[in-house]
Design a protein that fits this description.
Blueprint: H1 4-18, E1 25-28, H2 41-45, E2 52-56, E3 59-64, E4 67-72, E5 78-83, E6 92-98, E7 101-106, E8 113-118, H3 143-151, H4 158-164, H5 173-182, H6 196-219, H7 221-225, E9 256-260, E10 263-267
Antiparallel strand pairs: 1-6, 2-3, 3-4, 4-8, 5-7, 6-7, 9-10
Helix pairs in contact: 1-6, 3-6, 5-6
This protein binds zinc ion.
């Protein structure tokens, strides 16, 4: 599943090909994905200039003068920039044409989304799907303080609180496991009982882990925009994620797996308390 780093790398990959370009056509090959496509989308976008790209959580934003196109990659979606004329495959649902090139949205499981937020409805940050999102972790100077404040009195496990995304976005299953390992915090610890000092360590770990993933993804950027690019999700080497029974890279103890909220959590019982 694409997580924040994949979405950010996708944004960086398509940005030079779409920013400042005029949409020359939109092809929709079905009526919608997770939700129906916006009414009249081809007419809405054709002839309009993509002013900039942005990302909020896992939502990719293409800003136009009259509104913002919101794209979510869902469970299995990806975008590629390809020349016009490349044959369409089974799961290619949307093309946004920009002259000789187009952005193609492929999504085998169809949990993705393409939505339109008109300028007249106000700031896109106020869109129903965006307004409840927590802070962006990268570049957030007071992330530790926000974690402290946001977890006060909460007895839920810190792993669950991170995944919920209401304090900080983008810390999906992989990055929650990895950042909790890096900061030495047991994933089942009640969020409200973690000290300020440990939250400072966790905040630094979240930022470092995500930045490293984006950097690594950036080096495989060609996979995202190539004509025959595969799914493009990058494989990284993890400390604990998906390593049940393998030795902890720090202490050698077998990595453990527990299930929290129907998701697997990987951790080291010696390194994380
Ligand atoms: Zn360990």
């Amino acid at each position: 599943m694409p997580e924040l780093p994949e979405v950010e790398v996708t944004r960086r990959g398509i940005a030079p090909h779409v920013e400042g370009r005029t949409v020359t056509g939109v092809v929709l090959r079905r009526s919608g994905l997770r939700w129906p496509f916006p009414d009249g989308l081809p007419g809405l976008l054709s002839g309009q200039v993509v002013r900039s790209t942005a990302r909020r959580g896992k939502y990719l934003l293409l800003r136009f003068d009259h509104g913002t196109l919101i794209i979510h990659l869902g469970m299995s979606g990806h975008l590629r920039v390809i020349p016009v004329g490349v044959p369409v495959q089974k799961h290619d649902h949307v093309d946004i044409e920009l002259g000789a090139q187009l952005v193609r949205f492929t999504d085998p499981r169809r949990f993705g989304a393409v939505l339109w937020h008109p300028h007249a409805d106000g700031d896109v940050e106020q869109h129903l799907l965006l307004r409840g999102l927590g802070v962006e972790p990268i570049g957030c100077a007071d992330l530790a303080e926000r974690l402290v404040r946001g977890t006060r009195g909460r007895s839920a496990a810190i792993k669950q609180v991170l995944l919920s995304g209401d304090i900080v976005v983008g810390v999906g299953n992989i990055y929650a496991c990895e950042s909790l390992f890096e900061s030495g915090i047991h994933p089942a610890t009640a969020a409200g009982r973690i000290s300020r000092e440990r939250y400072a360590r966790l905040a630094r770990a979240i930022q470092r882990v995500l930045a490293a993933a984006i950097e690594q993804g950036g080096s495989s950027l060609r996979d995202f925009i190539g004509v025959d690019g595969a799914s493009g999700y990058f494989q990284q080497s993890y400390f604990v994620y998906d390593r049940e029974g393998e030795p902890c890279r720090q202490c050698g103890q077998p990595v453990r797996r527990i299930v929290q909220g129907q998701r697997s959590t990987f951790y080291c019982a010696r390194c994380q308390r």
